[in-house]
Amino acid sequence: RSSGMEAMSMEQLRDLARQVDPNVVLDDEVANVLLDLADHFVEEVATVSSQLARHRGGEKLEARDMKLCLEKNWDIRVPGFVSVQDAKGAIKRPGPTDSHKARVEKVRKQQQSQTLSQAQSQAKK
Length: 125
Known about the structure:
Elements: H1 10-20, H2 28-55, H3 63-74, H4 84-89, H5 98-124
């Protein structure tokens, strides 16, 4: 853990753990493994996000690059940002036209009359 650029310090990790469970006690070895995982995660997100920025032709790493990386690679949704899936669903389709509604109603009436006719012929038998 001596790369010089850590995602968080040991004390920050312990504070975070206490926020989750005030009674938690982290062993130094466990804390070091968690810190290594955090460092690896941050490095991976930065690398993939940078690749995404280059791929879209950007000269700067933007929040949308990191957001896309987190959503697609780790299924992490960032609060305050519209997710990729939400953006796809945000495209509104126009509602059914009046002619479509009329056709649907005509089909329903035909189905009801056929059902009624079948029920009447069954009752006669």
